[in-house]
């Protein structure tokens, strides 16, 4: 039975399974992964499946809950670990690769379908997001399901695909919000404007019942979320979907900071996200033009109606975000399944000489480089922005009567996650008050490297450095025994408030 499985499938399986290395060994590094991981951990701990919580008492209105549901469920099944939190994204990626293979096989044939799966799974952003705690992978599963389903409908192969189109919309709405509908509808509207004579199959879609299905799946959570934490809809719909993208310096972000990028930067992000295949595809296109094959290329586009559809689906995210200044490279992810099929159409023809070796090497390039980075990161050669080791060091030495670990300045998300919410954010003046009032037997303070002398001050003689990392030095400060048992007379430190 195993001998019947073709070699390309074993390569694909090896690529996808190799992501388990980073999923298991690489710690959460600030800021995205530990932020979302902590939200999922709080959901699993509290049993609140309606409102994602940024920290106890602070609702997270930035994203719908689908990814948090999946991650929290994984924690319930497998226990608390980086691997458990990352596993749902891996399954979502496998689903995206399978949908891409289905579309490519039907539209382009088995050979291009195989290469589409290999190209997509070995693009840099796909490979990274397959083992990362983030929301985008679930969004892309929804948009890809809808757009693949729509192509089957347009091609006259309706069946269950006409219903999956609406399910995909619901998945996108629960993963990222109305943006999913925009990214799905944009290429379809452009397609309809160009190919009006090919819209007859759209009558086969159950528009009323399908839309009702989408609403039944997605809307109840939005209603419950607003009822439980009033203000959610205003922040999420207006703030996250308009202010964030129209105002590059948007100051209303409650959970992070706006990214002021040059307009049009999203097209550069496509090169990064699709590495190395985007570059190979552009070089290949230029090579074909240089060899005088431009007419052949455009003739193929005219004769094969799947190419314009794939192209519109591929460029829709870039078109939408071109004028936005607040962008990230992860916004490219919805483009990659369709970009992969287009690139695979050319790559599959590279059977001779050096080009064939380039094709084979490109399959391994991103997975090998990213896995190498994982090993470099865990070896300590390149310090990571993670508090896992420092929290571990604190837990190994703290005793009854000691303070929680106090972070001077802004509390890193990774400290929140790895301390299970016990790490506390304090100012230097609050730390001074704690030290003066002797609430604890020992105080553990994580101090930014550049502020150690200023913060420790006159307590230097009583302070002992017990750990350090890229950003902080961890000090244990002994307090006088005659005052340390007087109870909490200093400022209250709620170890669960963050």
From TrEMBL:
Region Disordered, residue ranges: 477-498
InterPro entries with a match to the protein in the record: ArnT-like_N, LipidA_mod_glycosyltrf_83
Keyword annotations of the record: Cell membrane, Glycosyltransferase, Membrane, Transferase, Transmembrane, Transmembrane helix
Membrane-spanning residues: 7-29, 83-103, 115-141, 161-193, 205-224, 264-287, 308-325, 331-350, 362-384
Bilayer topology: Multi-pass membrane protein
Compartment list: Cell membrane
Chain ranges of the ArnT-like N-terminal domain: 30-236
One of the Pfam families matching this protein, by short name: PMT
Stated name of the protein: Glycosyltransferase family 39 protein
């Amino acid at each position: 039975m195993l001998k019947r499985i073709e070699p390309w499938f074993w390569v694909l399986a090896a690529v996808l399974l190799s992501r388990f290395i980073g999923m298991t060994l690489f710690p959460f590094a600030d800021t995205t992964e530990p932020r979302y991981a902590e939200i999922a951990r709080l959901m699993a701990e509290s049993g609140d499946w309606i409102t994602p919580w940024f920290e106890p008492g602070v609702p997270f209105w930035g994203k719908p809950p689908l990814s948090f549901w999946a991650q929290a469920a994984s924690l319930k099944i497998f226990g608390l670990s980086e691997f458990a939190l990352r596993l749902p994204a891996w399954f979502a990626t496998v689903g995206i690769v399978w949908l891409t293979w289905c579309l490519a096989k039907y539209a382009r044939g088995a050979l291009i379908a195989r290469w589409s799966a290999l190209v997509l799974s070995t693009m840099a952003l796909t490979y990274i997001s397959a083992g990362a705690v983030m929301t985008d992978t679930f969004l892309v599963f929804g948009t890809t399901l809808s757009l693949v389903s729509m192509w089957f409908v347009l091609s006259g192969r309706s069946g269950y695909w006409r219903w999956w189109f609406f399910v995909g919309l619901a998945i996108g709405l629960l993963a990222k919000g109305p943006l999913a509908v925009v990214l799905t509808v944009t290429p379809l509207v452009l397609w309809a404007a160009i190919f009006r004579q090919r819209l007859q199959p759209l009558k086969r879609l159950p528009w009323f019942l399908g839309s009702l299905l989408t609403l039944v799946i997605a809307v109840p959570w939005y209603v419950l979320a607003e009822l439980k934490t009033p203000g959610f809809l205003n922040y999420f719909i207006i703030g996250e979907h308009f202010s964030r993208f129209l105002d590059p310096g948007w100051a209303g972000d409650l959970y992070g900071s706006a990214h002021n990028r040059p307009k049009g930067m999203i097209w550069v992000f496509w090169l990064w996200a699709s590495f190395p295949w985007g570059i190979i595809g552009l070089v290949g296109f230029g090579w074909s033009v240089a060899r005088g094959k431009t007419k052949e290329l455009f003739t193929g586009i005219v004769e094969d109606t799947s190419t314009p559809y794939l192209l519109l689906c591929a460029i829709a995210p870039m078109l939408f975000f071109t004028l936005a200044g607040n962008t990230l490279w992860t916004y490219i992810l919805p483009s990659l399944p369709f970009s992969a099929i287009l690139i695979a159409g050319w790559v599959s023809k590279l059977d001779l000489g050096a080009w064939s070796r380039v094709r084979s090497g490109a399959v391994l390039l991103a997975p090998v480089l990213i896995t190498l980075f994982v090993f470099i990161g865990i070896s300590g050669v390149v310090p990571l922005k993670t508090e896992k080791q420092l929290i571990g060091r604190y837990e190994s030495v703290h005793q009854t009567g000691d303070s929680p670990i106090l972070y001077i300045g802004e509390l890193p998300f990774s400290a929140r996650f790895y301390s299970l919410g016990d790490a506390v954010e304090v100012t230097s003046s609050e730390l001074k008050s704690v030290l003066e009032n002797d609430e604890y037997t020992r105080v553990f303070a994580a101090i930014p490297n550049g502020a150690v002398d200023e913060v420790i001050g006159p307590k230097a003689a009583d302070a002992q450095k017990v750990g350090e990392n890229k950003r902080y030095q961890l000090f244990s400060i002994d307090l006088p025994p005659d005052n340390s048992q007087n109870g909490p007379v200093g400022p209250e430190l709620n170890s669960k408030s963050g």
